[in-house]
Every structure is written in C-alpha cells, then in structure tokens.
Amino acid sequence: MAYVVTEACIKCKYTDCVEVCPVDCFYEGENMLVINPDECIDCGVCEPECPAEAIRPDLESEAEKWAELNRDFSAQWPNLTKKRPAPADADSFKGVKGKYEMYFSPDPGQGNG
To answer: Helix (H, G, I), strand (E, B), or coil: what is residue 63?
Structure first.
C-alpha cells in the first residue's frame, strides 16, 4: 500500500504534506502534487496534514484511479521537499468537484528550484 494524491489537490496545492514527509516522496506539478508510490513508506503522516483532504491510501476505491497518475507524474515532475505558500485562491477551490477535467495541468512545477 502507498498513499496517493487525488483530484482534491488540483488548484489547491497546499504543501503542508511535503513538510512532514520523512522520505521526500512528493513531486510538484503546475497546479497539484503527487506521491511517488515506490518511494512512499506508507507511514501516513501526510494524510491528516492536507487541508484539502486530497491524500488517500491507494487501496481505497476513490484513490485507486489516482495511483497511476501519481506514478506517471512523479517520474516527470520535480521533487518538492520544502513547504511553500499555497496559491492565493487555493481556499476557493477546496471541495470543488470535477477539477481534473476542468483544471489539471501536466506541466511541471518548480520543485525545490
């Protein structure tokens, strides 16, 4: 089992989870984060830290479909190990449904750069 980031992260991109991850397995896209499931040690400390409740165990039915996206994009996006401010409009996107179809970007973020 590993943890995955779901669509609830899109356009919110809080990085509280990054700060507590003991193995630095978060990767940054333009408007969301993903977890590399091969690096995740299943400790679960990131899950309660996410204000958008976007992190779930990959065995949960809602999270299964996100496992592949997390795996694919963690290989393409830069690693992020430091907390940074959330987007100014992040709170306005919390709880919005259908964010993947409307807002997902495959473009990488800045990472630690």
So the answer is: helix
∠59-27-95 over CA atoms, to 5°?
A: 60
Q: What is the dihedral of CA 74, 80, 63, 76, to 10 degrees?
A: -20
| pTM metric for this prediction | 0.95
| Nearest partner of 86 among 109, 62, 57, judged by Cα | 109
Note down pLDDT in tens along the chain; length 113 residues: 799 999 999 999 999 999 999 999 999 999 999 999 999 999 999 999 999 999 999 888 878 889 999 999 999 999 999 999 999 999 999 999 999 999 999 999 998 86
